[in-house]
Amino acid sequence: ELYEGRAGIRETLAALALLGAVYMLSQVMNGVVNCFGTVYNRTVTKEADKAVFQKCQRLSPEEYEKTGRLDEIDKAVNGAKSAVSLGMTLLDAVFFYGAYFLIVGGYLTRMNAALGWCVAAIFLPCLFSKFLQGHVFGKAEDAAAPYRRKSEYYERCLTEPSYLKETRLLGVNDVFEARFRQAEEKLGGLRWKAGLEKFRYDMAGNLVNILGYGVILYLLFVSVMTGEISIGAYSAVLASINRVQSFMEELIFELLEYASGSLASVDNFYAFLDEKQTERTERLSELPSVHLERVSYRYPMAEREAVKDVSLDVKAGQIVAVVGENGSGKTTLCRLISGSYEPTKGEVTCGGKKASALDGTGISAVFQNFCRYQMTLSENIGISCGERKADRSEDKAGQTADQMEALDRKVELSLEAELSLEAGLSLEVGLSLDDGRFPEGLDTMLGRYFDGTELSGGEWQRVAIARGAARPSLLIVMDEPTSAIDPFEESALYHMFRKTAEGKTAFLVTHRLGMARIADRIIVMKDGQILQDGTHDELIVVKGEYKRMYEAQSAWYR
């Protein structure tokens, strides 16, 4: 009646009031979205990232030896960033644009059934083309993941301090620049190919859109000329059609454009999270003995076995040194014993439980390739403790002075108990809190990333040793724990390792045979197999690999 000019004052005012209410509601909702949208986006993105991190933590360490798995993780991380935005986009598409099209489509159908069907005929083919584009981008994402990882790695080699000193000194920047460009060119080629296919689908969608719009205008013209609708109704319908056209272009060529490009990434994100993983539920409950029964292990894509047909029995509480040349299988053997890797043949048990089923509780390690956490000294050491004893930067929040002092004392006492702190909190690993290197004591930030104190390689390794020793454990693996420490100072650490290993089943991987003498038992490995097994005194009198290595090292000190 409004369009025909037959509505009364009451109907007109009611229509205006409804229009005003809808307008006010839209402004309020826009304000809510602008105010809370960013906060919501960040919160949900954080949860999506957290889900990926937790999934990665549940993966077996050997999964990271597989290139394909690394590509899947990269795609999942990339998809986590798009998941929230895609969700918001689809909500907009359904509840805003979809609702609008249904209302306007219903109105047009009331006036002329053909008009409503024309709107659907325009929209659905364009929507289908966007889903086809999603498939195109999915294939492109699968192909792009390895090149993107290469590009990111070469970029780190050119920009990160840990690489920069060496690459600049050796003059190899141009090598990494060339490889970075090659990876980017591959990525660009994949994007170009996907873009061409997208362009073809877009052109088909645009053609359908234009034809549909032309048909609608023709039907409106015919309806006016035949008297089916008035000029007022024609104007209202034309305005609605123009708005529908504008919204449709916005939906299809902006929102759905983004959605089709992100859909594959988000699908990778959910596929990664939905993968079934074998849960590690076993725990060490007592000092474990270790048993290996004809164990072999081959790394993914490797041609030969790193460990071959190894059988071994270690009594609970024994300290075992594992020695041998590079590539003899020492580190791999210890990874099998700690449950990090699952043998390809045979079985490894710790305390009567399958090693690969252990959840890590009661197991500690000191790695040759240790981490340099950009955190405080206290956090660097205490991060390995199950109760996070040394995470004081968070624990202090909201605490009173007395509570903070008590917390500090608790941390210091826990560190003293685990690390045998000397007077003045001087660590037996060779780090003194009184020599000026740590101006804030345990709260001194380490590393330059957050403007902290940078340590030498040997000092960082001492921190790593302290971290491994601080973790409550029944089984400890120490893999070349003194590789970065001065040999003159190394002897001072021998008794500390012996003390750290007391009351535990311990494995010590080392090239330095002098350090192996602290062990109750020495295993000599070569080509993935155990050649000799015994004490230092037993092995040194036998003409074999151990005596040859010992004499070769001793010759340098004569």
Main sheet specs: 6 strands, mixed
**Oligomeric form of this entry?**
single chain
Biggest sheet strand line-up: 6-7-8-3-9-10
CATH fold description of the largest domain = ABC transporter transmembrane region fold
Q: If you had to describe this structure to a student in words, what would you say it looks like?
A:
60% of the residues lie in helices and 11% in strands. It has 558 residues and is of the alpha/beta class. The protein has three domains: 9-148 and 204-274, ABC transporter type 1, transmembrane domain (ABC transporter transmembrane region fold); 278-372 and 456-558, P-loop containing nucleotide triphosphate hydrolases (Rossmann fold, 3-Layer(aba) Sandwich); 375-454, no CATH class. It has a six-stranded mixed sheet, sandwiched between helices. A four-stranded antiparallel sheet has the order 2-1-4-5, covered by helices on one side. The radius of gyration is 34 Å and the shape is elongated. It is found in: Cell membrane. The chain crosses the membrane at residues 12-33, 90-108, 114-132, 207-225.
